[in-house]
Specification:
Strand order of the largest sheet: 1-2-11-6-3-4-5
Subcellular location: Cytoplasm
Shape: globular
CATH topology of the largest domain: Rossmann fold
Radius of gyration: 27 Å
Structural class: alpha/beta
Region (Disordered): 1-29
GO molecular function: ATP binding; tryptophan-tRNA ligase activity
Family: Belongs to the class-I aminoacyl-tRNA synthetase family.
Motif ('HIGH' region): 99-107
Oligomer: single chain
Number of domains: 3
Largest sheet: 7 strands, mixed
Number of helices: 22
Number of strands: 11
Length: 526
């Protein structure tokens, strides 16, 4: 465990929270198809808006050990999923696997996250990203079929219930492809260029695979909207952000807080909201706070006290002055984004209490934003829309390769395949890099560097299982100088051997389940 004041690196409980970063990485590079590595996970909070998972941990019922130990370190909007799990309400989990090689212990993190959510009542989806593998990696269909089978067998062997969950491959799911076609109408090349670095030399099929992945992420909500979580590594965050944007763009209505009949940008709205709270209507002639009064208050306040850019200030002043004597009065706004005439009329009828109807929006004065969002979604679904909820995501740390650096499928010595012979797995661990000192004497004196040790990560991510005390004991003994690397690696190597033997035995047992599952194991394109 790293020391210092970074909450990512040390838990309040004193239990080991592994770093899990890629040794030698020097920057944040979120490339879904590259060799992404993250050397400082704090940058993900600062630069990409990923939230800390420890802030939502207490809201999660019986959290998985990957959550408790900080291996799952971040999230986007996970609270609705956690609430649904607590309350026994509908929720879903989905993640996909690009079958370009053998499944390894890094992939097991995602398998475990899907299975954990399924066991707590979420609808679970596991998909084979074969269109992506073919278009982005140039894999042949025969190669894809072979690897896809291996991924699915390991998923089932680890506990995925195919009778309660859904397995599919992108290339044979017509509903998915139809959804991708519709989502494609809301995405454009400039956007893909900005997000993924596509250029004039990018294959169209590669671009299509991106839209297909957006459809994958929203697919669990195709029948009905529900909180949905996508467990991924942080390199996949660009996909999640785009999917959240597309989910919003498909919505019939945008719901927001408003203060007058005109539309305000978020920064403008925050400024008006602050002044609404500060100004006393009783100080004005007819005991009513009006747009002109807010404009006057803004003009009388120094810019530095307002805390907004000059262009924002000019824009909001123009809107307020044009509205003149219109009262400033909080309301919830339903903005018509792409609703049919029938849906817009149905929304008007569905809003109880005082309301004002305009050409492109409806203002409700007796509805809170949360209630309004649910009403808008209900009206949308009843009138043929999707009503998608923005998908949530959770992010796990990258495992360090056994040889140091990032774990890579293309470097066999850096990872342990779930298909490795148990003896080969034993040998790989025995040959692994450690966070030990130069000599045993120095190790006993100064202690080992567990947070820089790929072998300790094996304990924290896999070998300790649900036993937090075991993981903590390994850590404490290492940094305290009691545990030497040779004995530590021997114990880890034996546990890996046992895990692989047990897992492969279980894989053989579930072959019948895979044959009976509702998924095509051989591509018709092969």
């Amino acid at each position: 465990m790293m020391t210092g004041d970074d909450p990512l690196e040390e838990s309040e409980s004193g239990k080991p929270v592994t770093d899990g970063g890629a040794a030698g990485a020097d920057d944040v590079a979120l490339d879904p198809w590259g060799s992404s590595a993250v050397s400082d996970y704090r940058k993900l909070f600062e630069e990409f808006g990923i939230e800390r998972f420890d802030e939502v941990l207490e809201e999660v019922p019986d959290p998985h050990y990957l959550m408790r130990r900080g291996v799952i370190f971040g999230h986007r909007d996970y609270r609705p999923v956690a609430e649904a799990l607590r309350e026994g309400e509908d929720a879903a989990v989905l993640s996909g696997f690009m079958p370009t090689g053998d499944p390894h212990i890094g992939h097991k993190l995602v398998f475990d996250e899907i299975i954990w959510h399924q066991q707590r009542g979420a609808d679970a989806y596991g998909l084979i990203a074969d269109l992506e593998a073919n278009s982005a990696r140039g894999m042949s269909w025969d190669e894809i079929d072979e690897h896809a089978r291996d991924y699915l067998l390991s998923l089932l062997a680890l506990g995925f219930d195919p009778e309660e969950g859904t397995l599919y491959r992108q290339s044979t799911n017509r509903e998915l492809q139809d959804l991708a076609f519709e989502l494609g109408a809301d995405a454009n090349f400039s956007e893909l260029e900005a997000i993924y670095g596509f250029d004039g030399g990018t294959d169209v099929s590669h671009m299509q695979s991106v839209v297909t992945q957006m459809a994958d992420i929203l697919y669990p909500q195709l029948e009905e909207p529900k909180p949905t979580v996508i467990p991924v590594g942080p390199d996949q965050d660009p996909h999640v952000r785009l999917a959240r944007d597309l989910a919003e763009r498909t919505r019939f209505f945008k719901v927001s807080k408003a203060y007058a009949s005109f539309e305000l940008e978020p920064a403008e709205r925050d400024l008006v909201a602050d002044l609404y709270e500060q100004l006393d209507p009783a100080e004005f002639d007819d005991d009513s706070l009006r747009c002109v009064h807010v404009a006057e208050a803004i003009e009388e306040t120094p810019l530095e006290e307002l805390g907004v850019p000059a262009d924002t200030l000019g824009s909001v002043l123009t809107k307020l002055e044009e509205a003149g004597m219109e009262p400033v009065r909080p309301r919830t706004r339903f903005f018509d984004r792409r609703a049919t005439d029938e849906a817009f009329d149905a929304l008007i009828d569905a809003i109880d209490g005082e309301k004002r109807v305009y050409e492109n929006h409806v203002d409700a004065f007796e509805l809170e934003v949360g209630e309004a969002e649910e009403l808008a979604r209900e009206v949308e679904v009843d009138n043929g829309g999707y009503g998608f909820r923005p998908p949530s995501s959770i992010y796990h740390r990258f495992m360090t390769g056994l040889t140091g650096g990032k774990m890579s499928s293309s470097v066999p010595a850096s990872h342990i395949s779930l298909l490795d012979d148990p003896e080969d797995g034993y040998d790989k661990v025995k040959a692994a890099t450690t966070g030990g000192r130069e000599t045993a004497a120095e190790q006993r004196e100064k202690g080992g560097k567990a947070d820089e040790c790929p072998v300790y990560e094996l304990y924290a991510y896999l070998l300790a299982g649900d036993d937090d005390e075991f993981a903590k004991r390994v850590y404490d003994e290492c940094v305290g100088g009691e545990r030497l690397c040779g004995d530590c690696k021997e114990q880890a190597a034996q546990l890996i051997r046992e895990f692989l033997a047990e897992h492969q035995e279980k894989r053989a047992e579930v072959e019948g389940l895979l044959e009976d599952a509702d998924i095509e194991l051989e591509s018709p394109r092969a």
